[in-house]
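Progress note, sequence design subtask.
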């Protein structure tokens, strides 16, 4: 299955339509806490450790514990690469409705280090830094630990 990628505006339209789409923010816990699309759920695909960023070995397990394989999931990160990786992992695990948001929260970088494709926040879309407790990684991870 090819990975479908959509713009931040298309993402907002799908989320606003209240058609069952879930925005899965795959950035680390601190990045998520600093700001995310309203209503986003946080399951990091990589986590910060003493040696820098490392893959979250529980990523797919935590998503599986909280969402069905038919859940309509839109993945997003800061710039795009992590969410693409997360989307591909979910598709490989059997999730059938996975879309990736291009540009992430900030934007895709061009070869010169500038923003080549503005992300969610740079397009003036709403950002929240006050997640519902049940949308945080610690709460979602608890579900998978049961």
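Output:
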């Amino acid at each position: 299955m090819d990975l479908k990628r959509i713009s931040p505006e298309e993402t907002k339209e799908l989320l606003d339509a209240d058609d069952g789409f879930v925005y899965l923010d795959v950035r680390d816990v601190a990045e998520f806490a600093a700001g995310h699309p309203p209503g986003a759920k946080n399951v990091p695909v990589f986590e910060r450790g003493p040696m820098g960023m490392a893959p979250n070995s529980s990523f797919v397990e935590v998503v599986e514990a909280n969402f069905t394989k038919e859940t309509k999931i839109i993945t997003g990160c800061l710039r795009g690469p992590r969410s693409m990786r997360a989307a591909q992992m979910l598709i490989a695990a059997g999730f059938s409705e996975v879309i990736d948001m291009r540009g992430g929260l900030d934007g895709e970088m061009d070869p010169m280090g500038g923003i080549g494709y503005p992300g969610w926040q740079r397009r003036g879309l709403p950002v929240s830094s006050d997640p519902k407790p049940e949308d945080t990684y610690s709460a979602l991870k608890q579900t998978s630990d049961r």
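The first helix runs from residue 8 to 16. Work on this subtask will continue into the next period as scheduled.
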